[in-house]
Amino acid sequence: MRTDADSLRRRLVVLFVALAAGGAGCASHPISAYVPAGSTLAVAMPPGEVFGNELVAFGSRRLRGEGVYDDQRGELFFELVDGTTRHALDTNVVSAVHASRASALGRSDTRPQTLALIDIPATVPDDPDPYDLEVSVVRRTNASQTDPSEFAVIAGPVHLGQQVTVLPGEGELLPETDARFPTVSYAALADDVYPAPRVRIRLPVETAAAELTLDYRETKLEILDVFVLDRPETGVLVTWQDTGSVLEILVLRTGSTSSVLYLGVSFRLIDPFGAEPDFGRASPSDFVPIDPMVPYLFKDDGTPLSGSVSVLEIL
């Protein structure tokens, strides 16, 4: 039976996809947007084209309203810039969307696109000349209950190659709740589509089967899931078991083995502000492949595959 929450969740996801389709563009080419002050603007950010790496932060105002913070990666902070004048914007929701697998793009591009919904305050002056849109990454500096919004800039600001013209008139922000579903909040649904941090793991070319064992700091991390990055690949089965401080992963690949296979391990930080190394933010060194005494990578014909598993970056 479809509930009000299910219906609203689908509407929010459809909104993300629709806005991504309409607002998608390459960060290196200027894109113009026209919006009244007091409106919500969608900004699509292709991965790897903003800060020169895969750094994307998914914290937002709506998540903060639920007491949820992206203490691993931070939050995108947008500004409208006119010379020396800067207008701070409010990051409403950030998520990642994929093109449909039924589309040519969905079959060829495995990377998700980051989509940010940002609120233009009603106090931003309308101007026939466009503002430049810039973005930084900020991150909470402490877990103080009296001031949990103390943030520091860790990257940027970077010009997105996008300009925004603020039009006269009064716009409309994405609402906090929907009158048709008064018991369901958009903030709670923002938590539903929030991409948890994950570590990327690379399996070598020709891997048809793998039996991996990863040691990790159970005092620092709670494992949420293990999956294929960045888009479900046909012919790959992944199962996993968390035994406390050891993660056991089985991979069976029945499709082509001619390319590298990337796995993602998503997690939650237990105490992001605790003392290292047992607490704090995660790093790739917190995940250590345990070398087995027997082969753990296999080719199509069942023979052992020489090679190793690489733990890459945190995404």
How are the SSEs ordered, and which strands pair?
Blueprint: H1 4-23, E1 31-36, E2 40-45, H2 61-65, E3 75-82, E4 85-88, E5 90-97, H3 104-108, E6 113-119, E7 131-140, E8 151-167, E9 177-178, E10 181-185, H4 186-192, E11 198-203, E12 209-216, E13 221-228, E14 236-242, E15 246-253, E16 261-269, E17 287-289, E18 297-298, E19 310-314
Parallel strand pairs: 1-8
Antiparallel strand pairs: 2-6, 3-4, 3-7, 5-6, 7-8, 9-10, 11-16, 11-19, 12-15, 12-17, 12-18, 13-16, 14-15
**Beta-strand proportion:** 35-45%
Shape: globular
Low-confidence stretches: 1-31
Class computed from helices, strands and strand pairing:
mainly beta
Total DSSP helices:
4
Total number of beta strands: 19
Tell me about the biggest sheet? 5 strands, mixed
First-to-last CA distance: 35 Å
Description of the structure:
With about 325 residues, this protein is mostly beta strands. About 10% of the residues lie in helices and about 40% in strands. It folds into two domains: about 5-190, no CATH class; about 200-315, Immunoglobulin-like. It has helices at about 5-25, 60-65, 105-110, 185-190; strands at about 30-35, 40-45, 75-80, 85-90, 90-95, 115-120, 130-140, 150-165, 175-180, 180-185, 200-205, 210-215, 220-230, 235-240, 245-255, 260-270, 285-290, 295-300, 310-315. The radius of gyration is 21 Å and the shape is globular. The relative contact order is 0.17. The model is unreliable at about 1-30 (pLDDT under 50).
